[in-house]
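User: For my dataset I need records formatted as: sequence, then structure tokens, nothing else. Please produce one.
Assistant:
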Amino acid sequence: MDQKYSKSGQYSQKRAIFFNNSGILCLLLVFFAIFSFSGCATKGLVTEEYDADFYRVPKLLPDILDEDPAFIVYGDTQADWRISQKFLRKENWLTWKMAIFPFYELCWLGNGAVGIFNRLRCVPDYGSDSRRMMRDAILKEWKTSPIDFILNTGDICAYDGSRPQHWALFLRENRQERSLLDEVPYLPTAGNHDRVNNLKYGRQNYQAVFDYPLFYYVESPNMGLFVVDSNVMIDWKGEIEDDEQDRLFAEWFVSGDPDCPGWLEDELKSCDKPFKVVSMHHCPVSFGHHWTDWISDSNGRNLSEKRKALLDLFAETGVQVVFSGHDHIYQRNVLESGDRPEGDIHFIVSSGGGVPLRDLTSIKEMGIIGEFYSNEGIEVMSESHFKAFHYCIVQVDSAEMQIRTYTVPQSSPEEPALLDEVVIPNPHRN
């Protein structure tokens, strides 16, 4: 009996020594992180932290194109956090590696310690492999296909557009490591992580990096492309007062006053192109994670009414395609046309540009969302719904608009595979 107690005591002592050493190792990892990285990612202005040669992305595309284009659409290229992706996800607790516990514990605790430290420093530290994979796939497409420009659907900088270091991460990966931003005309759409509602830093940084306003129009012989800032409606951080939000919606989207229309209202009604395409970060109809954005009071006032006015405008003015991001998956949702000569409206969510992907909505929840839309008078169907890193290629000519979506498998990124396809005929030829 004494011998058994003695062995138990030795075992407990060894366990205590191991866990004490684990604590010491965690502290060493934290100190290593402190000395390995320089400072925190503080809020500020890009113009004060870096030279213009580094941060200014050249505008390589005219606003009026002589020929109809072929272009790439993708979005959500921001970074993420090791603490949430490597430490807190349940998949990392239910791994076979736990069978070799406590040895796996060292790596597990190390990810937690470094991840917490970087989160406190506001330094995104996860997703570089998938971002670079998508960047290289798109750059290869540019070099091997007749592509005229890239349209990014938003959430472009690392995580927070009010922090210059987060823009620097995007610029280093896409300008210094590869010359994508200097070779390919790059059209931005403002996303919530780009923080353009933050007037002190975020908007100034966005406008310092890109030579584009938040609302702009690009036209070709058969297409009008309208890029808008949906942060006016979905105010993620509550940075715009409700009255000002209403005023901005009337100024830039729909006023309801024929004598003083909103910018988008006026542009769409005066556009006579057979194909009309809108790019906005927040999709008006989604079956993904962010489908509740338009019914959340924290994002703004009367959002359901604003969405209805926006969808009515799209239907009345002949918009066929709305590109968006935000949900970190691929979706193509179709608003049925009825007797509309331009056909259905395709709401394409392209948000698998490198950010960690989200899980797909269950069939049961999709039914609940569809019923909610129907009760709101929105007859929308989910046609495609995939969890995949991807990009879209849009080709426009006088006969039709073709949209093909390609997934980029992590196991073989050099071999993109067709994920979805839609062909929209020219309604003016019917």
